[in-house]
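User: quick one, sequence for these tokens?
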């Protein structure tokens, strides 16, 4: 069977004009509560209302001053897995955020960012209205969701313009500061909590040490993937340039949540782009990738063949 290359996936059907008419997100929220059912009686209607609340809050809140065409909405998935409920309305679990965007002149969607939050703890009762105020901590669930929304904006805007997500870095940082001072669930927000928590995610994105990484995302996407159908060699060059940037950042901040999350999202895509490179480029890519992302060495080994 003839191998179908990465570039063959890119079919010219999509155009990306300026952001114009609608709100920002097309969030899909998936809620899994099977572990709760095994532990106790769980009201499916209450879970359905919780899922609807999260979906409506993310999709219907105005997060920016920009306008988006319907087809330009930022596509995101939020997969929530509830694992414990110690009392009525109090839930513990984890959540996975996945942010994607289309590639210019193609029907291919690239994953911008994926993040697993192991501290998804909150209170929700269908009979109680939740309030959100970005300038003053209100309640846990809307604050976590607002944090996710701003993180999604950071990665989307950074992919279209150099450091374009800067306003949303500041907004997410402000949310973290509000929550870490007031939240009853500090493990998700505080610097003394989980090393991959929300505090450390936004700390990475705020840090000057990660500025080259964020600038490099513009090169990877807008100057790299977005020219793939016209100039695949240029795409590979920009991807390799970005990997060298990641190497420099990783030397300063090894095992950071931002770098780890990047490779969780991009390993398969990186392989498919670089497998079609010239032997010397493949060798360079292999050396970089097995050092930066050793857990996926088996995948990258094919680049050295």
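Assistant:
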């Amino acid at each position: 069977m003839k191998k179908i290359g990465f570039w063959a996936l890119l079919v010219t059907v999509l155009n990306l004009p300026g952001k114009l008419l609608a709100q920002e997100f097309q969030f899909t929220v998936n809620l899994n509560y099977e572990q709760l059912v095994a532990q106790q009686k769980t009201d499916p209607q209450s879970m359905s209302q919780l899922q609807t609340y999260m979906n409506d809050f993310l999709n219907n809140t105005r997060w920016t001053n920009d306008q988006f065409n319907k087809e330009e909405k930022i596509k995101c998935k939020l997969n929530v897995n509830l694992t414990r409920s110690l009392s009525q309305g109090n839930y513990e679990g984890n959540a996975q955020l996945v942010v994607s965007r289309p590639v210019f002149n193609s029907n291919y969607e690239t994953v911008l960012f994926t993040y697993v939050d192991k501290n998804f703890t909150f209170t929700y009762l269908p009979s109680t209205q939740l309030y959100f105020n970005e300038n003053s901590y209100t309640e846990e669930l809307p604050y976590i969701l607002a944090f996710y929304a701003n993180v999604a904006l950071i990665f989307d805007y950074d992919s279209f313009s150099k450091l374009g997500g800067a306003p949303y870095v500041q907004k997410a940082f402000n949310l973290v500061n509000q929550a870490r001072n007031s939240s009853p669930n500090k493990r998700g927000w505080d610097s003394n909590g989980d090393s991959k928590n929300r505090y450390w995610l936004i700390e990475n994105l705020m840090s000057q040490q990660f500025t080259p990484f964020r600038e490099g995302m513009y090169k990877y996407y807008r100057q790299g993937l977005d020219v793939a159908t016209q100039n695949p060699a240029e795409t590979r060059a920009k991807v390799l340039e970005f990997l060298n940037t990641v190497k420099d950042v990783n030397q300063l901040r090894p095992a950071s949540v931002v770098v780890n999350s990047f490779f969780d999202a991009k390993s398969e895509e990186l392989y498919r782009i670089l497998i079609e490179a010239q032997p010397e480029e493949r060798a360079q890519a292999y050396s970089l990738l097995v050092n930066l992302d050793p857990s996926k060495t088996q995948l990258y080994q094919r680049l050295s063949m």
